[in-house]
Amino acid sequence: MRIILLGPPGAGKGTQAAGIVNKYNMPHISTGDIFRKNIKEETELGKKAKEYMDKGLLVPDELTVGLVTSRISEPDCANGFMLDGFPRNVSQAKHLDVFLKETNIKLDNVINIEVDKNILVERAVGRRICKSCGATYHVEFNPPKTEGVCNVCGGELYQRQDDTEETVSKRIQVYLDETKPLADYYANEGIISNINGQQSIDKVFEDIVNALGSEK
Ligand code: ADP
Ligand code: ADP
Ligand code: ZN
Domain holding 201: CATH number? Predict the structure, then answer.
C-alpha cells in the first residue's frame, strides 16, 4: 500500500503515522524527520534546510523532491510506503506523479487529517518528542506517564525549535496557502479520504483504518 498523510502542522500526522506503520508494516517517510536528522548531524542539507525551517517556510523543492524520490526507490519501499509531510505544494505533487508514472507505481490513498486552525497552535506548542525513538506526546492532550520521559523507550523528551507560537502560526499560513490546495488535487485524482482530526487519537486511528481497509 502506498499512502500520503496530508494535514496542517499539529493535525496529528506523526501521531497517526506510528499506529499505521505498526499495523500495516510499511516504511514511514517523514521529510520533516529527515531534515531534523540532517540538522542534528550538521550536514550541508541540514544547514540549508534549517534556514527555512526556523522561519516556518518550506524548504525549496530542489532540496526536497530528489530526497523523497531516491528514498522511495530503496528496496524496503518496494511493497509500499507512507509519505508524511510530502508533498507540501502542487509542484511537489506533480514531480511525485511524474516519478510514480515512470516507475509504474500508483498511490492508493491520501489520508487528509482535518483540524480547525484555532486548535493547531495549542497542539503544536504543547508537543514533545522523544530524542531517542521519535514518539510524540502532548503536555496536556497525550502526556507521558512520567513528565519528560518517553513511555516507549525511557528516552528524554524535547520541544522542537520551530514549535513556538510565532513559527507555528507562520507554518499554518504556509499550509493554507501552499499545502491545502493538494486536497483538491488528490480529490480530482479520486484517492482522498477526509478524516476528522478533532476526535480522540484512538478514534482518528479507527477512521483511518476504515478508510484504508484491510489491504496491505
Ligand atoms: P503533525 O505531525 O501533523 O504535525 P503530531 O502528530 O505531531 O502532528 O501532533 C501534534 C500534537 O498534537 C502532538 O503533541 C500530539 O500529541 C497532539 N495530538 C495528536 N493527535 C491528537 C488528537 N487527536 N487530540 C489531541 N491531541 C493530539
Ligand atoms: P509539521 O507537520 O508540524 O508542519 P514537519 O516535521 O512535517 O512538521 O515539517 C517541519 C518543517 O520542515 C516545515 O515547516 C518545513 O520547513 C520543512 N519541511 C518538511 N517537509 C517539507 C516538504 N515536503 N517541503 C518543504 N519543506 C518541508
Ligand atoms: Zn522514546
Answer: 3.40.50.300
Ranges under pLDDT 70 in the chain: 214-216
Evaluate: CB of 89 within 6 angstroms of ligand 1. no
CB of 7 shorter than 6 A to ligand 1? yes
Question: Which residues form the domain of 94?
Answer: 2-115+177-212
pLDDT, one tens digit per residue, over 59-106 is: 999 999 999 999 999 999 999 999 999 999 999 999 999 999 999 999
Domain count, the chain: 1
Judge whether 132 lies within some domain.
no
Task: Identify the pLDDT of residue 48.
Answer: 98
- The answer as to whether 192 is a domain residue is yes
Reported as half-sphere exposure (CB side, CA atoms, 13 A), residue 2 has a value of 17
For atom 16 of ligand 2, the residue with the nearest CA is 53
Instruction: Give φ, ψ of 94 to 5 degrees.
Output: -65, -40
> What's the chain's length in residues?
216
- Which element (helix H / strand E) includes 29? strand 28-30
Ligand 1 binding pocket includes 29 (Cβ within 6 Å): no
Confirm whether 160 is a catalytic residue.
yes
- pLDDT of amino acid 213: 86
